[in-house]
């Protein structure tokens, strides 16, 4: 049986993704999201999925995620 490997985490604009276990990029592996000062993450940790891809993560200007959340709750 083949193991699912996501490869190295993708490049993150305004941040960096760091493997929790330095050489583990297989299904279930974790990567920590660290954003450049002045930016905040939408997720603290992402994982390698069973589709062989890393979950998506973003670093946005501080406060933007709160604004987007409030707008989505207003829309229902």
TrEMBL record:
- Highest taxon of source: Eukaryota
Recorded hits in Gene3D superfamilies, A to Z, give: Complement Module, domain 1 (2.10.70.10)
Q: Does the keyword Disulfide bond apply?
A: yes
In this protein, which residues make up the domain named Sushi? 4-61
User: Is Ligase among the key words of this record?
Assistant: no
The UniProt keywords, alphabetically, are: Disulfide bond, Sushi
Q: What Pfam families does UniProt report for this protein, alphabetically?
A: Sushi
Q: Report what the protein is called.
A: Sushi domain-containing protein
Organism for this UniProt entry: Dreissena polymorpha
């Amino acid at each position: 049986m083949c193991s699912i490997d996501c490869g190295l985490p993708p490049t993150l604009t305004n941040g960096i993704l760091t493997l929790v276990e330095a050489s583990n990029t297989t299904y279930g592996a974790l990567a920590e999201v660290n954003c450049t000062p002045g930016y905040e993450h939408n997720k603290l940790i992402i994982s390698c999925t069973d589709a062989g891809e890393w979950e998506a993560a973003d670093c946005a200007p501080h406060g933007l995620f709160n604004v987007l959340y409030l707008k989505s709750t207003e829309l229902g």
